[in-house]
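Action item from last week, closing it out:
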Amino acid sequence: MRSNDSATGTVTIAVSTPDAAGQATPTAAAAPARGPLVSRGALLAALGVAAFSLTFPATAWALEGMGPWTVVMLRSVLAAVLAGGALAVFRVRLPERRHWTGIAVVAGGVVLGFPLLTTLALQTSTTSHAAVVIGLLPLTTAAFSAVRTGARPSRTFWTASLVGAVVVIGFAVQQSGGAPGRSDLLLFAALLVCAAGYTEGGRLARHMPGWQVIGWALVLALPVTVAGAAVALSTEPLRLTAHAVGGLLWLATGSTFLGMVAWYRGMAAIGIHKASQLQLAQPLLTLVWSVLLLGEQLPPAAPAASLAVLACIAVTQRSRG
């Protein structure tokens, strides 16, 4: 059978046939697509990375006029309104019961956990130092995927992934002066919960369109985020500057919803482990946005690091497995 996705057309999924007892039994396992769909999947995953690369600068803007809890809860509430509206307009039926555990992991990891932990960390960390998290995220997501889905990438893939992670981490540490800060534990925790959410979301996107995965996760988290927003707005200062509003709107629409739609759909098409390695470019893109939007200085090592990362990405995308 084929499952329609408004962003990309169709992708092959598992087909079920009744057995002797009348129960549906899968006859073909879902697998990453081939040919043109792979190219579209890689493009969608890359668009997701581009959207995510603006997350830290947008968070820094939002924190200029809002407290950290207000930023996290409002971005999720606004994204849930957008996602819930789409689910209602298209009359999407509730997911099967077996998918709700995975949706809860997505909600806990990418809707609540990662935004909260990184926002708290950015109160005392620069965006370049926070990029350490993103430098480790591709490798961690690939590892989670190997455990959760049974994917077995080749040695070439793991070698290129490790080299890319080392390049990005070394670059980020050099940028921050190599001194660990109080935010490091928060960033490390954010890395783990985000990798879990990415892996589970990529797996679910083989069974339902990617926008529905993040949509239902946002809706599931809505009781928590609405209550949290109410408390945060009553206890934290609020100044609706252009930067604060613009940053919050991007976090809600770009980072939390539209970026995740493209990201999960891309993961379903090319595989979680290959999509994850495209994120090696994210810290460097974040640095570019930090220069343009926050006035930070572009370091001399950035071009060399960018070329090394692009080479590692090319190897991971061409590797077998």
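Closing note: DSSP finds twelve helices and four strands in the chain.
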